Amino acid sequence: MPPPRRRPPAPGLLILLIFLALASPGEVAGDDAAPGNVTASAPLPCSDLSRVCTAFVAFPAAGEAANASVLESMFDAAPGDITADAAASPGYAFVRKNCSCLASRTYLANTTYTVPSAAAGATANATAADVAAAAYAGLAVPPPGGPALRPPRPGAVVALHLLCGCSSGHWNYLLSYVGVDGDTVESLSSRFGASMDAIEAANGMAGPDPITTGKVYYIPLNSVPGQPYPVMSPSSPTPAPAPAQNTFSDVSEHHSTKFPYGWVIGSMGVALALIAIALLALVLCKLSQYNPQAPNNQGKSPDQSISHKFQLLKSGSFCYGSGRYLCCQFGNVKQSRTDGSDHHMNTPKGVVVDVFDREKPIVFTYQEILASTDSFSDANLLGHGTYGSVYYGVLRDQEVAIKRMTATKTKEFIVEMKVLCKVHHASLVELIGYAASKDELYLIYEYSQKGSLKNHLHDPQSKGYTSLSWIYRVQIALDAARGLEYIHEHTKDHYVHRDIKSSNILLDESFRAKISDFGLAKLVVKSTDAEASVTKVVGTFGYLAPEYLRDGLATTKNDVYAFGVVLFELISGKEAITRTDGLNEGSNSERRSLASVMLSALKNCRNSMYMGSLKACIDPNLMDLYPHDCVYKMAMLAKQCVEEDPVLRPDMKQAVITLSQILLSSIEWEATLAGNSQVFSGLVAGR
Question: Where is the Protein kinase domain (predicted)?
Answer without folding.
Answer: 376-664
